[in-house]
Write a structure and sequence with these properties.
291 residues; alpha/beta; Rossmann fold; 2 domains; two-stranded antiparallel sheet; globular; binds iron/sulfur cluster
Length: 291
């Protein structure tokens, strides 16, 4: 019998709910094993000892969460980060452009309607939102926003069979059904603008599609449906920094569309899910640390 822990940090629970999409397969996975700690599902207050597999969703936002994850790591054989917040910082990580204390002040006392507000007393904040691996060793990542249910099933079933899951080696473009001709538009398009060719690559049509810089394995459902990939599965195996990889893919395009491109404006596209984990931020923009 394998003892499982399921926890959402930073108040997250959506990626755990994504696992419900496994339907009866989830029952098969749980059958014969024991869920020993899962605040969204069972009422157990203390983190148990001797956990076999700990599955953690959400990023680190407070010092208390860092203490909790350290305790779980010490008590667990295998630790998995579930979803892009846990793996890379996720969309909340874009808030790292400001220190957490500055953000609290802005939101609770400096916005329209909060000018007489009071900053709430919360756990001691870290300077930003950070992925789990900045505090403890993580054994496996299941990225995505939300993660693919096939990935959740594959990782859990493989581990429960005593084997090691392997990583996806492709990027999203390799799964994408759209035709690439190697000829690019010289105009950058906004997401709401019309897709002129329904079968052609969106990047070639001027949309900032993150496919070349994003780990594949999802089957490219977004570009297949007419929406640019926004990079929810994080970087590929070959390139650790999603934004820099994308800029590399855009080099010829940027010179053509230089009047329409602004790095500071596009940071939320290039690093939508990976800002706290990017080499750019870690090495050049203030070297943010998990503190
Ligand atoms: S850039 Fe986007 S639309 Fe083009 S092939 Fe890659 S995933 Fe498909
Ligand atoms: S196509 Fe891109 S945004 Fe859509 S699920 Fe795949 S990685 Fe995520």
């Amino acid at each position: 019998m394998v003892k499982l822990l399921l926890l959402g940090l930073s108040g997250d629970s959506g990626c755990q709910v994504a696992a419900v999409g496994l339907h009866d397969k989830l029952l098969k996975i749980l059958m014969g094993n024991e869920l020993v700690y899962a605040p969204t599902l069972i009422d157990v207050k203390e983190i148990p000892e001797k956990i076999d597999v700990a599955i953690i969703e959400g990023g680190l936002r407070t010092k208390h969460e860092v203490e909790v994850i350290k305790k779980i790591r010490a008590n667990s054989n295998i630790l998995i980060s579930l979803g892009s917040c846990a793996c890379f910082g996720g969309i909340p990580g874009l808030a790292n452009t400001e220190h957490g204390k500055v953000l609290l002040k802005k939101i609770y006392t400096e916005q329209k309607g909060t000018s007489v507000g009071v900053i709430p007393v919360v756990d001691e904040l870290l300077s930003g939102q950070f992925p789990i691996h900045t505090a403890v060793q993580v054994d496996y990542l299941i990225p995505g926003c939300p993660p693919e249910i096939n990935d959740i099933e594959y990782t859990l079933v493989t581990l429960l069979n005593g084997e090691k899951p392997t990583k996806c080696l492709t990027d999203v473009c390799e799964d994408c059904p759209r035709e690439r001709l190697g000829v690019y538009s010289n105009k950058l398009k906004r997401i709401f603008e019309e897709v002129s060719d329904p079968k052609r690559c969106l990047l070639e049509q001027g949309f900032l599609c993150m496919g070349p810089a994003t780990m594949g394995g999802c089957g490219a459902p977004c570009p297949a449906a007419g929406m640019p990939c926004d990079g929810c599965r994080g970087p590929t195996i070959k390139n650790s920094d999603q934004g820099l990889t994308m800029l590399d893919a855009l080099t010829s395009l940027i010179s053509e569309m230089k009047d329409n491109f602004d790095l500071t404006q596009h940071i939320g596209i290039l690093y939508r899910y990976t800002y706290p984990d990017s080499n750019l931020v870690k090495n050049f923009i203030g070297g943010q640390k998990n503190e």
